[in-house]
Amino acid sequence: MVQFIDDEQLVRDVESRIPSLPIAYWSKHKNAVQKKAACAKYPSIFELEFNNIYWQTLRSSNGTFQLFGAYYDIRKRSRIGPAVRILGMIDRIEPKVKTFCQLWFDGQKEPFIVKTFEYKYIWFNKWGNYKQGIYQPYLIACQIPKPFRGLVPASVSLVEKQCDTATNNLRVLYNRPLDDKKKGFAVCVKGLDFLYDDLSVRLVEWIELLGILGADKIFFYELQVHPNISKVLRYYEEQDRVHVTPLTLPGGQPNVPGFQHLFLSKKTTHKRQNELIPYNDCLYKNMYKYDFIALLDIDEVIMPKLDEDRTWNDLMERVVEKGMKLKNDTYPSYNVRNVYFFDQDQHEHDWNKDVPKYMHMLQHVQRAKNYTKPNQYVKCFHNPERVLTLHNHFPIACLGGACHSFPISTDDAQLQHYRADCVRTLKKSCEEFKENQVRDTTIWKYKDELVQRTRRTLDTLGFFRPSSAVGGMGRGRDSLYKR
């Protein structure tokens, strides 16, 4: 049977696939806004220049811009007032080219045009790749003019000359709850690159643990993943516990499966620069919705240490109070020290008999005695009202002044990092970490609930052997198979 789809359904479908495309606005106003204008007609969505599906392009006289998203920012601490911030990459360091923002408001036949306020570099030159021709991450600011303050632009285009017909047009996102009530904690996960590694069972354990700790939602970005990981993500998406955004690399960087993985594993500085796009997109899409945003990898967990701290909320109520005593204000971020829980060969360690063997974190309770140094390899709870740009480990720029980060005591919490080895930059001290280990069963305070939740999910997904479906929750369920 042939199924027909009308234009309205098509618009909704395209908008869900490419959130940055203002197709609904264009569809509604195309007859009015595309008539001849004195300056800068509204660009047809068919005349925009797309790059690798999710990016839109501006080719200037001095550099190419690949634009990913645009966001409405009216946070109180912003010194420039209401603004649209555009996230993207530019193949220039310290771009000199002058550009303009064409701001399109609903019901206006022509845009209001303002000069770009700033290009905010989301990187430090000492980290490498500081040369022309390599795509660099930037946050571009466009101030909202006074007559339009209080109105949210429908879309924005970046152009070199004021009256150019733009080759890009980004929907301005403003995800603010109607009742202005924030939830507690969001977690952002950079582009998943697990084409060959089936980490689906470990991912289930991790998602369930974060749910117990109080993560309201986890926002994943997906490059290339194993089919079983896709199965896990779709399951949690249906429950509205996670959101998955497909992602590509911009410009001439590879997006072919396999080749992309090779590129990211060999070109680590390029990889780290690219990661800043999903992290900051996640911040700006969710800055009005959550009290705290944490950037985590799927092999690490912020673990409250005290028995009375069952959740992140319990932990942060005490931590924020400690910070207030120091400077009578909230901090842009609160950082947690990193400690390694080494994987080792699976059979070198003793199995904990009352824990299923597939529960990776619950089984690995030996850790390095020493933490990595303060402010190194930390992860943070970020206050989205205060941070401007984020890096994997800490904020790079903050609103209203310097980025002071409050160090959470290791008596209160630790970043449990489950790895086979240290990161490359810690190679010299890694042997010392491995030789001096202690038993740490802090995670076991969640053991019963975590085992039950994980088993239930794996059973629903059909990851157990068929024979184990008989006999309730018995030990036969330790036997996994995956289609």
TrEMBL record:
It holds the Pfam family Glyco_transf_92. It is an enzyme of class 2 (transferase). The keyword Disulfide bond does not apply. Coiled coil: none annotated. Keywords: Glycosyltransferase, Membrane, Transferase, Transmembrane, Transmembrane helix. Its main location: membrane. Belongs to the glycosyltransferase 92 family. The keyword Nucleus does not apply. This is Glycosyltransferase family 92 protein. It is a single-pass membrane protein. The lineage of its organism: Eukaryota, Metazoa, Ecdysozoa, Arthropoda, Hexapoda. Its EC number is 2.4.1.-. It is found in: Membrane.
